[in-house]
């Protein structure tokens, strides 16, 4: 079984490399690189969700019928996973075995903010990135370092800022597991709404803010392993 994983805004496939040691041979973790970073540095970043999802689908579509697959994402990566699952269902007529979503409220609860982060001036944009966490403060403070990542961050924030769920909710034929941080701005009640999107639902909350996953990799991968193992040992 393949586990396609998607990073947060500004992140790359490398954020999941430290997860690989926790998975057995039957589960192949496949971190998906997004355009404009990591191994695809030099390509142009996408600035809207539809184009990004279509590109990812074209890169993995030949594998989708080989074996069962699951989708996993954190923050922006959760939106990518959800939208990709729907795109694959429309194109291939199949759903993932499971969705693992982290640090993101469900699409129907998202609203476009009056202040769009990707349009902020340099210092205000830095402050927003720092508030979320996930990037070393030294990289944010040092202009020469921040300038390297700023175009990627702004492109990803534009995707999130302009994302609009048009509904209705299309329930997938799979289960959904959601992870959240107890100190994150996204509440347990909001995360519970993901139950509307799948056949069955479970929620796990952990200490920490928006990037709680960095401190709970072992616990989260254990749940992923347990859930996926039901495919082989029901």
Description:
The structure is a single chain. The protein has 234 residues and is of the alpha/beta class. The chain has one domain (2-114, 166-229): Rossmann fold (3-Layer(aba) Sandwich). 35% of the residues lie in helices and 15% in strands. The chain has helices at residues 49-60, 76-92, 122-132, 137-141, 143-162, 188-192, 217-229; strands at 2-6, 28-31, 69-74, 98-102, 175-181, 200-206. A six-stranded parallel beta sheet has the order 2-1-3-4-5-6, with helices on both faces. Helix 2 links the parallel strand 3 (69-74) and strand 4. Helix 1 packs across helix 2. The two termini are 15 Å apart. The mean pLDDT is 92.
Task: Kindly list the characteristics that best describe this protein.
234 residues, alpha/beta, Rossmann fold, six-stranded parallel beta sheet, 7 helices, 6 strands, globular
SSE arrangement:
Blueprint: E1 2-6, E2 28-31, H1 49-60, E3 69-74, H2 76-92, E4 98-102, H3 122-132, H4 137-141, H5 143-162, E5 175-181, H6 188-192, E6 200-206, H7 217-229
Parallel strand pairs: 1-2, 1-3, 3-4, 4-5, 5-6
Helix pairs in contact: 1-2
Short summary:
The protein is of the alpha/beta class. It contains 7 helices and 6 strands. The chain has a single domain, classed as Rossmann fold (3-Layer(aba) Sandwich).
Across the major sheet, the strand order is 2-1-3-4-5-6
CATH superfamily: Alpha/Beta hydrolase fold, catalytic domain
Major sheet attributes:
6 strands, parallel
Ends apart, CA distance between termini? 15 Å
> How large is the share of residues in beta strands?
5-15%
Overall pLDDT score: 92
CATH architecture label name: 3-Layer(aba) Sandwich
Low-pLDDT segments, ≥5 res: none
Elements, N to C (H/E): EEHEHEHHHEHEH
Q: How many strand units? A: 6
Which word captures the global form? globular
What is the radius of gyration?
17 Å
